[in-house]
Amino acid sequence: MENNTKNFLVSTADFAFYVGDVLACTGTTNLNTSLEVTTEEQEVNAGKGNKLVYAFKYGRKLSATLEAADWKLEYLAMASGSKITEGMTDVYKLGEHVALAGGMGVLSAAPVGDVAVELPNGSFITITPVDGKIDLTSYGLTNEGDYVKATYRYNRTAKSITINSDTVPMCGRLILDVDKHNNKLGKVGSVQITIPSYQLNGNFNIELTPDGATSTSLEGKALAVENDSCSEGSVYAYIKEFDDTESAISVLEIAATPATMNLDMTDSTSAKISVIGLKGSLYAPVELDNTACEFVSDTPSTAAVDGSGVVTAVAAGSAKITVTYQDVTDEITVVVA
Predict the structure, then answer these.
(1) Distance between CA 87 and CA 72 in Å, rounded?
(2) How far is CA 203 from each of CA 79, 166, 209, rounded to the nearest angstrom?
(3) Residues 6+ apart with CB under 8 A from 49
């Protein structure tokens, strides 16, 4: 790839939210997704001129904001910590246009209780419906084309949540997935961010605008969890980059281990070589797949090696095994006794 090519992350990130091991919600946060890592700093000043001699870093935090363009009641359930219920419930018809025939109007749904009616002159009255009908003959509305606006409760199946003062926001595993594009090649891979313990802060904002789709904004923080590997300690998130254009791991040099392999004809007649790839100061060593390496013994009559890096003792003596990965090589010594 030429040096003037650049990679970009597109502005749309899909997300999945797990509570325990159960997928609770998915979404497309294609308006705004942001991650913010902050670290507190304590400065130590000392000596002549009270110069800065050390800056102590502590209290690292990771925050994530999801602004979803699509509407899902699950977003609010996550933030409020409420369960979604489904079933019959009371809802409202607001300002329903009801045409009158001979002063009688038929409502589109069976009302629960009385009906508030806005008359053509703007005043409000309350009518007790009979069999889903309202009678306005006593108000002189008997002409063809007369109409009123009715507001009333009725019963229907709905999904609902309750936002109260007792429940706490949900905490779970958040996964963000975003495409990686190149300015010359198009889509070249993806980046996936996993926050093992993401707790919503309970604040959410629903934007209702006349000139666009409704959006929902959710905010939360990562809680530290113990990593599977003790060497990495407590973690907030894992960021993994996948490159569809690379079929092999690029390394600067390799290290084949052990540097010296001792085989005893009467005891251990074979052993396997491990190959580690080194990529530079910002990269941790990576264990390479032996099947992607080439192994050659300079003295196969003493020590033979197969394509998976297994060395077998043949006769007493010593041999050199050359390991090649891409254009990088290393050697180990095999001593057979």
Answers:
(1) 17
(2) 7, 14, 19
(3) none
Q: Is the four-CA dihedral 313, 317, 322, 323 of positive or negative sign?
A: positive
Residue 234 tokens, joined:
């407590």
CB < 8 Å & 24+ apart, contacts of 208-217: 213/69, 213/70, 214/71, 215/31, 215/67, 215/68, 215/69, 216/67, 216/68, 216/71, 216/72, 216/75, 216/76, 217/32, 217/65, 217/66, 217/67, 217/68
> Is there a contact between 177 and 190 (Cβ–Cβ < 8 Å)?
yes
CA distances from 218 to 95, 189, 260 (A): 32, 27, 57
Q: Is the pTM of this model over 0.85?
A: no
**What does the pLDDT look like over 191-240, one tens digit per residue?**
999 999 999 999 888 888 888 778 889 999 999 998 765 566 789 999 99
Q: How far apart are the C-alpha atoms of 257 and 288, rounded to whole Å? A: 12
- Residue (of 24, 35, 30) closest to 67 by Cα position: 30
Q: What is the per-residue pLDDT for 40?
A: 94
Instruction: Calculate the alpha carbon distances from 10 to 3, 29, 188, 193, 273 in Å.
Output: 21, 12, 12, 14, 42
113 vs 68, higher pLDDT: 113
Q: In this structure, what token pair is assigned to residue 193? A: 């961010």
**3-state secondary structure (DSSP) of residue 209:** coil
Among 5-19, 132-146, 166-180, which stretch is predicted with the lowest mean pLDDT?
5-19
